[in-house]
Amino acid sequence: MLDINNLSLSFGTQKVLQKLTISLQQGEIGCILGPSGCGKTTLLRAIAGFKSVQAGSISVNDIIVSDAGYKMPVAKRKIGVVFQDFALFPHMNVLKNVAYGLSKLSKSEALKLAQEAIELVGLNDAKSKYPHELSGGQQQRVAIARAIAPKPDLLLLDEPFSSLDPDLRERLSSEIRSIIKQQNITALLITHDQTEAFAMADKIGVLHHQQCQQWGTAYDLYHEPATEFIADFVGEGVFIPVQVVAYENDSESKIEASDDKLLWLETQLGRFLLPQEYIDNAAFKVGDIAKMLVRPDDLRHQDESVLKAKVVGRSFRGAHILYRLSLNQGEPLLCLAPSHHDHQIGESFGIHLEVEHVICFPY
Amino acid sequence: MIKTALKGSAFTIYSVLAGLLLGLPLFVIFFSFFSWDTAIWQHLAATVLPKYISNSLMLAFGVGFGATILGTCLAWLIVNYNFYGRRLIQWMVLLPLAMPAYIIAYTYTGLLDFAGPLQTFIRGTFDLGAQDYWFPEVRSLSGAIILMSLVLYPYVYILARTAFSEQSQKYREVSELAGVSPLKHFFKVALPLARPAIMTGAALAMMEALADFGTVEYFGVSTFTTGIYRTWFGMGDIKAASQLSGFLCLFVFILIMVEKMSRRDSQNYSSRQGKSAQAKQVNGINGILIFVLCSLPVAFGFIIPFVQLATWALSFSDLSNLADYPEYAMNSAMLASIGAIVVVAMALLFSYAKRLHPSKTVSGFIQLVSLGYALPGTVIAIGVLVPLGWLDIKLNVMTNVWFDFQPGLVFSGTVFALIFAYAIRFMSVALNNTEAGIQRIKPSMDEASKVLGDSPTQRLLRIHIPLLKASLLSATLLVFVDILKELPATLVLRPFNFNTLAVKAFELASDERLIDAALPSITIVLVGILPVIILTKTLDGIERKYA
Q: A158 to chain B: nearest residue by CA?
């Protein structure tokens, strides 16, 4: 549906994005996640057609809408945009705002489509109200209704919930998601808020250093981050130092040669098999020092474990407590334990590392 | 504690007393209108009233329309297009503000009448006689409408420009996404959003048109202001004059309502979000076209009359007429200086009283004394004359009885009456500055000064006045220039044989001595450019804020 291929964007001589490639299937919701100033708004404006592209291409429904020499007019693209500040027209009521993009249709048809869109976002009672009479959440719904009323091929949402308070943000985001899904609309949203991205999106791309570091599901991003930046940026976790060693299969005796290619990662918390893809890529060799990602949920609370870590910090999160632990004065570790395992700072408890996805990077 | 409270209430008492004093002429006009004299009205209705009403309304609506068209188009072009010479145009476009309507009126009369350069040129070139061709008469109602639109359009332009430049870039993008053409976007979004601001500007321009005396008197168009002047000066009938003034005030109050309502609307309409619209670069022929289009109003509203005035002043002026120039220039400077200082000082005290004790009473009086800007000078003059004349009579009777001595017209026949009238007419100009300035001073400043032991008076002298220096200066300058330009109230209230630049320019022009009138006129215009420069800087500041 949406295919962005090797896209490069720049402002004058300043490069904003380089070689970005992402794609969305019909009905999928994508999300571009990144800190402010990373170029995500620029990307959105390029897709909408407000900005020309320097290299690569953007296609919607297999038709190229932008490439280095061509920019399809904005109005021809059939793209809807929900702006960050909503950009509702203050002199028009809700119905007129929503019907604004339907002026090409006959009056009755425009009215019908606008009514449908308003009903969809649940604002039937506020049809004749003006934007300044609406709450932030209602304004947001109007903005969505206006964007989807013309039945666009692609819906773009620019930080759609950033001006709402956190409580409303969560409620509205799941509601908006179900509307988009129900209408089978393909949508791309941009945000700096991970929870929003995880709540809304099927596929997420993280922008950093002018590049899309990874394009995948929230699960992939969290459990199989492609770069160190993503590992650090998405979710919580720490890196622990590891050494690459070679052992004979399941044996305790270290071997010098690595003919059988069985490499292990030796850590304070145990030994883990280096996954095959690292070996295929020849990413590490015996003797290398690397760092391994440990998520708080990888580290289990286990009373019988011989490894005892001291609590140096804790934050209560309802069902769980996130502990900050210190093991042999080493790097702090994070452990998410069920909250009935209640330990105070200074106490020690047994821990056990269980890593399903071994992720490591060069030190 | 008690002492502090008393000092604070001293400012409140001031604002009540000063408010009552400045409100007095308003009450006089108001009540005289309600002490309806049927005989006077029957006479007026049978003779001049229909003409006054129709001419005044046509003038007001004509000027409102003309100023709206010119101001809105200019603002739209300048906000949305970046063309070669735009910065120059941005500055020049406000220049007509420096050109009083009565001065542009007689300048164009001189330019366009039978013996003027244009008609002489036409006759010479095409070898025509006096009766062989038709030429529009400048000295007419439509002439007044056109000329006043040319100098009053900046009222609309300033507000429309701010409104257009505040409009978020996103609005244009929404239209683009919806496939709405730029022209349709202008009529469906940009113009409706700027409508309250444009209406406010139009209402202000219409107030000025209703208030005008010099142009219509010179052109022989009978309106309320000329009627009031003639009724008082010609017939000495103060009663009829004040009833006419009251009638004129009805129209003015409608305009004030329109203005206030539009201002409120524009607050609802201002979005203040996101980046404002970016100007589109236009080069080549189109750029030149826009430049020429934008320079037309200022060319006709300022440059052409200015050049004509300068030519007259420099080359044709009779040197013997120069002899009394220093005298009336000095009179003007003195009057404007005293007036400006008095008005700004009073405004400062009003604003400070409101800050010390923000009560409904003080705010109410501030609103009352800010109404004067809308009232025509002629009306204010009558409103000042009635109570001061009464006071002078009583005073003379009293001193005659007690001391066998008559001091004469101590209040109504001196500079006092003039300053009084100026204070009413220009208080809002000064208040705008002092109010805005004082709001920028953080409340913590006052608290710090209070904690450190300052009395309210000390605080005013040590904290507020030093911090307000810039606002006070610009207020003083604005009022100074306004007084310098003011004609009708000065004409009615000035002491016998007391001439100012404005009065002299008007009298010389009325005597068909246009060339001699050029020197005092161009003096007024040149001084009038100063506030235009300040205004340009302020507007640039606003625009940068939203860029």
A: B170
